[in-house]
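Customer escalation, tier 2.

The customer says the design service returned an amino acid string that "doesn't look like it belongs to this structure." They asked us to rerun it and document both sides in this ticket. The original structure tokens are below, unchanged.
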């Protein structure tokens, strides 16, 4: 496992570094001055930074989008509870309405009985002593109705709070989406500003990944679900990077992990930050196929360890799901699901 610790470029340099090597050889063959590589190298570094920033914004987008989904479910649950409570209150009021009609037919109705149909639940107990014609049982039913109305008011306030939070979450989703799109558009403009040969070399290196199937060694996954997730991730090789997507036709980094483990019957959180805590932390030196490898201090990228110092991951736009060395960027932690 010593290959885990070999240094490698940070960020998304791996494909671009190959392109730089390609251009250096070409420049030497053509007798170009060494300084000619500097503008491309600077552009490459800026593009890599933009891709890294876009990925961080993508994970923030995923988190906000997941929270919005949760809130929509919670709002639906509260609304169902409100509907049931309102139906219960309506039935109780109908019962008291029958009482009022009976009292009217038997010689008049206590005016205070009209309080039963007030929208203010606090009116009930405040005036209960004035409802002289109510029996003890009816007074108990009256207090039960008041309690039901108070619960209804609380549920309505809870629903209002969740709707306000949902609105904030939707705005956050839109803001993160805009940030991602701006970063990716800027990266594309920078790439388009390169001479054709340099741009083609960068994109060829970004798309190629590692040729063929790397030697993954003989180490097996730590569990059956890990083996199933490995098989699923392997089936996604070559699928495009699509930010905000968790498959099956395209993936971002955490989306690939979530989808792969879903095929194994395991529900992972949506973001790489949350996936870091989806299982037991193990040292990188003890990584087994199926373990999640979390990158950078902010956990903004994740891949799946496949064996022999290799991970499979969704790298960045233009680069499909592929194998890369586990040390392609700084490893933050390793999680065994």
């Amino acid at each position: 496992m010593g290959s885990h610790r070999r240094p490698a470029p940070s960020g998304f340099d791996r494909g671009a570094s190959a392109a730089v090597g390609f251009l250096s050889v070409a420049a030497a063959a053509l007798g170009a001055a060494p300084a000619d590589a500097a503008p491309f190298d600077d552009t490459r570094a800026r593009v890599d930074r933009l891709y890294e920033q876009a990925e961080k914004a993508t994970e923030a987008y995923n988190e906000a989008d997941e929270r919005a989904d949760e809130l929509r479910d919670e709002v639906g649950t509260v609304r169902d509870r409100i509907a049931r409570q309102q139906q219960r209150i309506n039935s109780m009021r109908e019962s008291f309405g029958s009482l009022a009609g009976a009292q009217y037919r038997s010689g008049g109705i206590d005016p205070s009985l009209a309080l039963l149909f007030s929208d203010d639940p606090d009116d009930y107990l405040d005036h209960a002593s004035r409802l002289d014609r109510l029996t003890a049982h009816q007074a108990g039913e009256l207090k039960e109705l008041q309690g039901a109305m108070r619960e209804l008011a609380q549920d309505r306030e809870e629903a209002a709070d969740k709707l306000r939070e949902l609105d904030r979450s939707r705005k956050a989703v839109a803001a993160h989406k805009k940030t991602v799109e701006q970063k990716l558009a800027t990266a594309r403009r920078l790439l388009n500003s390169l001479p054709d040969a340099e741009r083609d070399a960068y994109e060829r290196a970004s798309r190629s990944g590692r040729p063929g199937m790397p030697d993954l060694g003989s180490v097996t996954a730590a569990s059956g679900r890990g083996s199933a997730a490995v098989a699923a991730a392997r089936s996604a090789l070559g699928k495009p990077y699509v930010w905000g997507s968790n498959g099956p036709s395209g993936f971002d980094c955490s989306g690939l992990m979530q989808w792969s483990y879903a095929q194994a019957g395991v529900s992972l959180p949506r973001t790489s930050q949350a996936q870091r805590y989806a299982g037991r932390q193990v040292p990188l030196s003890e990584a087994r196929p199926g373990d999640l490898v979390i990158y950078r201090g902010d956990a903004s990228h994740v891949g799946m360890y496949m064996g022999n110092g290799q991970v499979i991951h969704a790298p960045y736009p233009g680069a499909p799901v592929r194998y890369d060395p586990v040390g392609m960027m700084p490893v933050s932690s390793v999680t065994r699901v």
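Tier 2 assessment: The sequence is consistent with the input. Helices lie at 13-30, 37-105, 122-127, 136-193, 196-208, 224-235, 253-262, 272-275. Strands lie at 280-282, 292-295, 301-307, 310-313, 322-325, 331-336. Sent an explanation to the customer and offered a walkthrough call.
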